[in-house]
Amino acid sequence: MSLTKKKYEAIVAYSFLAPNLIGYFLFFLLPLAFSFVLAFSQWNFMSGIQGIQFVGLRNFLEMPGDRWFTDSFWNTIRFTVITVPSAMILGLLAATALNEGAYGAKVIRTMFFMPHITSLVAVATVWLALFHPSRGPINNVLRSLGIENPPLWIASSDWSLISIIIASVWAAVGYQMLIYLAGLQGISKDLYESADIDGANGLQKFFRITLPLLTPTTIFLLMTTMIGSLQVFAQVNLMTQGGPGTSSSVIVFYVYRSAFQFYRMGYASAMAWVLFVLIFFVTYLNWQLRKKLLKIF
After folding, report:
1. What backbone phi and psi angles, to 5 degrees, belong to 54?
2. What is the rounded (10 degree) CA torsion for 250, 254, 260, 262?
3. Which element (helix H / strand E) includes 46?
4. What would the CATH number be for the domain defined by 64-296?
5. How far apart are CA 263 and CA 79, in angstroms?
6. Which of 281, 245, 225, 229 is nearest to 76 (CA)?
7. Sequence spans of domains, the chain
8. Number of other CB atoms surrounding residue 244 within 10 Å
9. pLDDT, averaged across the chain
């Protein structure tokens, strides 16, 4: 009787888990395995499953000679290297100011966080208007300050990626600020009072108390923000379409373009796996950094 009851409980438990497990298999494991197979194949999905042709490592060997891929790869690295520290530093500064009891802190905190929860379509549309080369408010202000030839922003190959970075940092600062603010509020006030008694000034307290105790928070934000930055897509797709030329193209955008505009599903899958390896490597480095820093602090 006891065994029957255990079997019944197991059946009930698995019946509750089944929808999630089936969904996980159908929408994650199966596509993951299929994309791995496609990475070594050539396939135009319009031709159906029977059109899959095995090509070995050809897709991977093609990447170094593909200017769109190499430019997209380095643009992704540039975007990440600039966006991540910029958003984290600005978020930390904002959190520190709000934690000190700035006037209207709740309203300011909400204003900072709003861009993060706003649709990226709306964010991109607003920044497209701001960055308009001839009628945009930013260039109108620059001209009023005496700058005769302001940047063309999204219409310039030199400024298009920078324009996307500015919009992305603006949208990300609120999230960084909120997480840092939670970390700051977890630091005991007794530590700062002891530092005051010892005669420490504001900078000394910040660099010797605040920053070390925010190490777990910083590592968490560094890891999650880097992963998100390496997968940037929406801003590029909505603001520049990777142009002018390849100046603002990133890996995920080129994966999308190869798959659904050029119908090269195999090549797109190979690039996606290269991106996966890159993200895995970055995550591993962050994890090792986390363990070392936690031992120090």
Report:
1. -70, 130
2. 150
3. none
4. 1.10.3720.10
5. 27
6. 229
7. 2-54, 64-296
8. 16
9. 90
